[in-house]
Amino acid sequence: MDGLIDLTVRVGFRDRARFWAWGVHKMQIFSGYIALLALASAICSAGTQPEAQEKDGKSSWSASFATEYDSKYIFRGVNSLPGSGIAVTELELAAGDFSIDIWQAIGLSKHYDEWDFTLTYEREIAPFTLSAGYVNYYTPDDDHLKLGYADTQEFFATVAYDFRKLFTTKLTYNYDFDKIGGGFLELRSKTSVSVVKDRVSLEPYVSISYDFHYNSDTQGWNSFQIGLDVPISLAAHFTIKPFAAFSFPLSAIDEFAKKEGWGGVSIAIEF
To answer: For the whole model, what pTM was predicted?
Structure first.
């Protein structure tokens, strides 16, 4: 009995040590991103005239918090967590043209944990909106998916064009320069149709993607996806959004991916 108690205590301390080590690691990463945001804010403030800010009537700072349920975890055409949905928490902080996004997902039927940290610079040069940035994907618990790595990193660049406010088309290229060493290109178009003025709208979208040795060891068309978002504004800064989507694998991934349909709902607060 004493041996069992001793084993339990040792295991408990070991688990707690792992937890604290993980917590310290996350705080170090988070502190680094906060420092980057502060630097970005200083750069933006130095280059922005107070008169221009007052004229626009917009604050140079903004923040949003969202929580979301997805019945499946579909990422770039592939079901990344078969047999389980995910619960997502997301925090975005913006200062001027810079923003930091912290995205965290946990498995609902499996032991899965993922943290994504994104730093973005965005600039509007009418009629285009240009953005570029860096993403760190950190997966402390992959439920034995054997990813072969705990984290990996990407650079990305996006060009968006608003066609007379009828629909927006966005072209995004991501390149994993770390563990995967591959690229991913996606072209997405989206429109918005008001159902109840300033309250409810329908936002259908369609996308097609191309795989540059990211999901597979070859390159070719990755997937075709369609979806529908239904944002419902419940208050000035509070939105609930049910959504549904379908993904169809193409030549690059059709040997291991399959047709997928999923849905969910998100709740967002903006400040």
So the answer is: 0.79
